[in-house]
Amino acid sequence: MIVQYTSMNRMKKLRKYQQFYDELNSWFKNQNLWKTKKDFAKSIDIPYSQMKHYFRGGAFPKKKVAKKIYAATNISCLDVFADKPSMSIFNKFDDKKQISEDTPTQKSPQSLNKEKSMQEKIIPEKPIKLAVSGDVSQSKLKKDIKKSNEFSRIEERQEFFMPISGFIWLYPEEVEVVNHPIFQRLGYVYQLGQTCLVYRGATHKRLEHVLGTVHMVHRMISAVAYTRKKSIRKKEKTAAPIETKEDRFIRLGALLHDIGHLAAGHTIEDELCLIGKHDHDERLDLVLNNTESRWLDSQGRTLEG
Predict the structure, then answer these.
(1) Strands (E), the chain
(2) pLDDT given for residue 131 in this prediction
(3) What's CA 211's distance to the chain center, in Å?
(4) Model confidence at 110, in pLDDT bands (50, 70, 90)?
(5) 144 in helix, strand or coil?
(6) How far is Cα 242 from Cα 194, in angstroms, rounded to an integer?
(7) What span, in angstroms and rounded, lies between the C-alpha atoms of 136 and 176?
(8) Rounded to whole angstroms, how far apart are CA atoms 135 and 143?
(9) What domains are defined for the chain?
(10) Least confident interval from 4-18, 38-52, 85-99, 258-272
(11) Quick check: 91 pLDDT over 60?
(12) What is the pLDDT of residues 245-268, one digit of tens each?
């Protein structure tokens, strides 16, 4: 188990599959159908010796097992395995209408074809690990990405480890942004300016800061989705769910929120007022559309593309 010190000088475990651990244990704590985890494992036909590893965050279920767990829990980190309408016990509390379980449903040829194509997809069993600062082949990142009007899938995400946040995940298109020279520039800009001259440990850069911001945004979006599901189960009125395009737009905003920063930016912009602000249109246009060769990627593109 990976361990780090917290501000309270206590040891905190960082699980290998932290998001899965958080969502599964949070769900079990709030449900009242099964008294023990052993009962839950038995009810969905998974050995308890195997289920223990999932509740400890030390293992991630493979396709068949993941489908069983998702059918019972509906946790968001497993929704990629839902290739047909969920069999969750909470489905009867749909926010629009209640459908009787006794009512037979007839599938259209289109839906049958869609299910068949979903079953033919190859889903990796392990997350792909990739170094942020490494020399990443752009063609490899694009290999399995859908057409431009669709979104990359959850299982295509790349895994990174951050000192504070632990393991975080980025989609392939976000990795392309991170690998761009304009973004990599943030790896040379101190987040806290000259503070490190007094507090010698305050040496993290803006690159680590924005990656951590994406992680926190992901946690907030997951919390909103989980709260909405709880409201549905209680038959309470709920707002519309966050759509995929909104999710990706919010994440991209977090990833790029400091893209215009210079070294000691707040000092020379806010205190001394020597130059314009880092988030004004003039600065952002200069950064996103800079055509100097050193600020173009391997394919000669600006960050704006």
Answers:
(1) 2-5, 11-14, 128-129, 158-162, 166-170
(2) 46
(3) 11
(4) low
(5) coil
(6) 39
(7) 9
(8) 16
(9) 1-126 (no CATH), 127-305 (1.10.3210.10)
(10) 85-99
(11) no
(12) 999 999 999 999 989 888 888 888
